[in-house]
Design brief:
alpha/beta; Dna Topoisomerase Vi A Subunit, Chain: A, domain 2; four-stranded parallel β-sheet
Amino acid sequence: MTASRQGNVKWKEIIKVVKQELAKLSFKPTLRTMFYRLVSKPLIPNTNTTYKSLGHMTVEARMDGRLPIACFADNSRQVVGDWSEDYWTPDQVIDHRINELWNTENDYEAFIPMWHNQPHYVEIWTEKDAMVGTFQSILEEHYVRIVPMRGFSSLTFLYETVQRLKRLQIGGKSIHILYYGDFDPSGDYMDTDLQKRMRKMKFNINKNGGSFERIAVTPKQIEQHKLPYNPDEVTTRKLMENDSRTNGFLKKYGKLYAVEIDALPAKIPDVFKQELVIDMVEKYYDKDIYQKLVDKYPPSDINRQVRESVLRKMREDAD
């Protein structure tokens, strides 16, 4: 089944394909990622109109059960002040804390921060808020902060982020920012803009051997993986008329690109997950440092410390 025009799209069949594609992926995709997977087959045309239609059709399919309702990553809306309203009786609280205490020898490792004593510190910065869920699903066991810049980041947000990184840097950490953004006139400049503004805030990312690296999207990746890069008529007109960076981009690259970061996990999901995300993070992580800390406190020693601490506390209370 192929489609070259919006009117040729058979949405019932497309939804069946979406379900199949979701089963193939080992991370949660954005709607845009799924759109590019369908474009690359090619099953639907690469147009804004088709993307909007895909959104409407997948909403219907998620509501009526043809697709899992939470199948797409979406970090654009968040609940503020989300807390538990479960009530525990005093007996339940006491039993819970006693069980936690006696289980310390088995779960102590969970209290060791993965990056404790590591000389390097890594963050993922992404242009698009919607990609946060995808990165979270890939890096859930790596404990790496994922920072959505939402285009050209606000001054307040960037300042607060820089202050946090400065504290880590003063503590001796080498700071490494892995940046993931679109490749178009504005997207190509966003990481440059971020670095310029950080320098104005007197933050030297290169101190202690740190780095700021654009991981994706790059011209080499577009060519190597044959990513769809030609903008449709609506996008072209918007870039030519409204983006002041378009002329400079054309002089630099010789043609107009419009490649979203979502296209990479769509076209090469396994490569994106392993080589462009996990491997990029793990090259700064020393597993031996973590393991030495785990080995320093074997379960038998922790169990002994728990018992000694409980007995000491009981004696103190008795006195």
